Amino acid sequence: MRRCRDWDLLNAEQQLFLDLALPGDSIKFVKISTVAWLPDTFGFCATLPQIFASGGIEYFVTQKLRWNDTTQFPNDVFLWRSPDGTELFSLMSAPIGEGIDPVKMTAFSYNYEKQTNLRSSMWLPGVGDHGGGPTRDMLEVAKRWDSSPLFPSLKFATTEEYLQGIKANSLSSLPVWDDELYLEFHRGCYTTHADQKRFNRRCEALLYQAELFASLATISANSTYPKAEIEAAWKKTLINQFHDILPGSSIPQVYVDANAAWQEVEATTTEIVQKSLKAIASKITLPTPPQKDSIPIVVFNPLNWVSSQIVTISLPTPGRKWHLYNHSGDKLPTQLTSETTLVFLAKKVESVGYSLFWLSPATAETLANTLQNRDLAPTGNTISQNSIFIGL
């Protein structure tokens, strides 16, 4: 069964990665589950049925909305519909962390049948948090109650088997839930420990850029794709999306460990991005610069649409006056924000592409006489080692 994450805070790419990548971890268990089993997540965004269905998920199970402190969730068995129209067979299960309690089980079964018209219900015996599944004592108690003529018959089965059975008998008459599944209990998950949200979004963007530019560098520059490094970074990110870390409901020590992991992911992916951009840029054939000592600046756009962004450049020589030109040699407006920093607007950089600019000294002779590092200048018709590469 699929694992518990904070599904309300992840972007679609993250959800797809979890949904489509984690089955690889399940190979050692022989069978890939068709059940999204998320009993303890603090709410679910409305797009999940569409994303789950794309990963081969057929069923969704939670019990969390039974925790609502204000509104009782109206459905135990229902079709959950995404905005795109995708529907997922869903179950609001019995509470988790319960034993074999005949009074509770009978009461739940009665209310469940009254609400769904289904005569068979699913009970989830187990220790619960930090304890795992049912104990030997629970199994023995269940066996004894099953022999009682006064108690409903008990059968041990998988969740998938149960869902397949009730789906076949109830699909035509199920209510449809056409919205998010909002938990009225753990409020403030979007704002508590905001640093975790910032780290998460930052690492989401960097992981995407690392995969994108490393792939392009492999294709264009024959670089070695850093598969192990990217996989390790993904796994650290996924662990930090556990439903008590990302919403901000963990104890302080957890965030000490989480912050260290976020920083490792950021360092790894930033290094991969920079190495990949340098490899890609090394294959760019440069036009004639506007001045002989001009420094090429390559601005990359990782987005899937044309983008215009403010770009910040660290100047190689503080206190000097610099001009900026586009690839056609047209001078562009710039602004100094400090003695060492210049900003400009990079207009309409192509989707998953780049634009070339030139940083030129106001007086080429002065710059030429000042520079000690000759690697800063273009060498022939290719990008030099110390040229400036910027990802939007």
The tally of beta strands, per DSSP, is 13
Please write the CATH class name of the largest domain. Alpha Beta
Structural class category: alpha/beta
Strand order of the largest sheet: 1-2-4-3-5
Number of helices: 9
Q: What number is the mean pLDDT?
A: 87
Q: Helical content, roughly?
A: 25-40%
Question: What is the total domain count?
Answer: 3
CATH topology of the largest domain: 7-stranded beta/alpha barrel
Kindly report how far apart the N and C termini lie: 38 Å
Features:
Immunoglobulin-like, 392 residues, 9 helices, five-stranded mixed beta sheet, single chain, elongated
Characterization of the model:
This protein is of the alpha/beta class. The protein has three domains: 12-177, Alpha-Beta Barrel (7-stranded beta/alpha barrel), CATH 3.20.110; 194-281, Glycoside hydrolase family 38, central domain (Substrate Binding Domain Of Dnak, Chain:A, Domain 2, Up-down Bundle); 295-391, Immunoglobulin-like. 34% of the residues lie in helices and 17% in strands. It has helices at 12-21, 48-54, 102-116, 136-146, 159-170, 194-221, 227-239, 252-281, 364-370; strands spanning 35-37, 59-62, 77-81, 87-92, 176-177, 295-301, 307-314, 322-326, 331-332, 335-338, 341-349, 353-361, 388-391. The chain has a five-stranded mixed sheet. It has a five-stranded mixed sheet with strand order 9-8-12-6-13. The chain has a three-stranded antiparallel sheet with strand order 7-11-10, with no helix packed on it. A hairpin with a 4-residue loop joins strand 8 (322-326) and strand 9.
